[in-house]
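Researcher: We are triaging several targets before committing to wet-lab work. For this one, the compound of interest is guanosine-5'-triphosphate. I'm pasting the protein sequence and the ligand SMILES. What I need is the predicted three-dimensional arrangement of the protein with the ligand bound, expressed as structure tokens, so it can go straight into our comparison scripts without reformatting.
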Amino acid sequence: MYTLLSGLYKYMFQRDEYCILILGLDNAGKTTFLEQTKTRFNKNYKGMSLSKITTTVGLNIGTIDVGKTRLMFWDLGGQEELQSLWDKYYAESHGVIYVIDSTDEERLSESKRAFEKMITSEALEGVPILVLANKQDVETCLSIPDIKTAFSDCINKIGKRDCLTQACSALTGKGVNEGIEWMVKCVVRNIHRPPRKKDITWQPSTDARHFFHPVLCSSCDGRECCTMEDSCLSPCSSQMELLSI
Ligand SMILES: Nc1nc2c(ncn2[C@@H]2O[C@H](COP(=O)(O)OP(=O)(O)OP(=O)(O)O)[C@@H](O)[C@H]2O)c(=O)[nH]1
Ligand SMILES: [Mg+2]
């Protein structure tokens, strides 16, 4: 009887939760993408005006449910001095969304270097990567073939993992649903990184912003602190010295 009831409870109130990192250079459109995603996938979510988004110092957190699957996004700041913090999150993540600004040809090689460094990290081995060629609403932007050519010497470093390049506009929402649905499929089938079991009777905030949270907080495992700001201020602020900006 206990087994039956606990099975029923799990079926009704538990989700498989996957952590997805959103990475890319500053100004690529990561936070805009996160807001657009939350608006599309969370009923009743009143997102902030996309034009009011400013550069991220630390990280933003967002959660969406796609069927029985929950994705928790960690949107990290992309400025050069913040990129050294990205790898603190690799071991905990199930997927990466790498955002490229398709209108910024000048910084494409800088973006490629950051991408290359990220994909060659052992802590991310086998993790699916969705590359978003963002800002495709701008007429003069680089096309997908242009971007693939610029990133071509990364191909043999990608290794055995799912990888997709998707045209996207975080501003208009083009390509957002397709990208998210692809990511859900990939993380679910990746048996090497099983999900966390998450009780959905506890509903995380969908729009938390954390400005000084450079590493996962050891006392709350980087989860509660990212969604319940008050309970986390002291553990997280103890990590502040690591963020040298
Ligand atoms: N035209 C256009 N502009 C976009 C798009 N996505 C983002 N932007 C703009 O690009 C700028 C930077 O967007 P953010 O979302 O703050 O970029 P970010 O990658 O989070 O930057 P950091 O937080 O500094 O790492 C903002 O002015 C956005 O409005 C897009 O799809 N199309
Ligand atoms: Mg941002």
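Researcher: Any quick observations?
Model: The pocket of magnesium ion (ligand 2) is lined by residues 30-31, 55-56, 75 (CB under 6 Å).
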